[in-house]
Amino acid sequence: MNRVDFLVEEASIRNLLNGLLPRLYPDLTFICLAHEGKSDLEKSIPRKLRAWREPGVRFVILRDNDGGDCVRLKRRLLQSCRHAGRADTPVRIVCQQLEAWYLGEPDALAEAFENERLRGIGRKARFRVPDAVQQPSEALRRLVPGFRKVSGAKAIAGLLTRERNSSKSFQVLLSGLDRLCAELADGASK
């Protein structure tokens, strides 16, 4: 059986993927392995990739950028995957934080947090390019008093769409998953 295991840095990313992927990729079998932050994830990558012997399992690494140099970060994570013997592992960097994906779809935000005012944030210069917002989690806390990362991910996971989301890093993740799913389907038909 083909399966994709996502190695993610925290529970909020896991919660988002658990609500998002079954809608966008209904035929994809997956598991999300959440870690306790960036350093836990990075230490875990070589260990998990080397030790996993289950046939047909592919991996995807998903990590927030948090204001870092995304090119250098991705290069370092890809190198870790290569050293573990899994050079086929896609690495996706969330720019800057997961909450930028939420800012990329104001209608989903408004619905998830029952606040019609949020539909208009996409017209504000500060939010037009959600991946450029330096601290999207803080911006979201100002827009949605009481916002919490884990419960927020659960609330919006069922509402984000491919068609309306303006976050480039969200779209890059989906494009990568499209390719990976096509590879898995092609491999299964052989």
Strand content: 5-15%
Gross morphology: globular
CATH architecture of the largest domain: 3-Layer(aba) Sandwich
At the first level of CATH, the class of the largest domain is Alpha Beta
Across the major sheet, the strand order is: 2-1-3-4
Distance between the termini: 13 Å
Describe this structure in words.
This protein is an alpha/beta fold. It has two domains: 3-97 and 166-188, Rossmann fold, CATH 3.40.50; 99-156, no CATH class. 48% of the residues lie in helices and 12% in strands. It has eight helices and four strands. It has a four-stranded parallel β-sheet with strand order 2-1-3-4, sandwiched between helices. It is globular, with a radius of gyration of 17 Å. The relative contact order is 0.17. The model has no long low-confidence stretch (mean pLDDT 95).
Summarize the structure.
This protein is of the alpha/beta class and 190 residues long.
Highlighted features:
single chain, 190 residues, alpha/beta, Rossmann fold, 2 domains, four-stranded parallel beta sheet
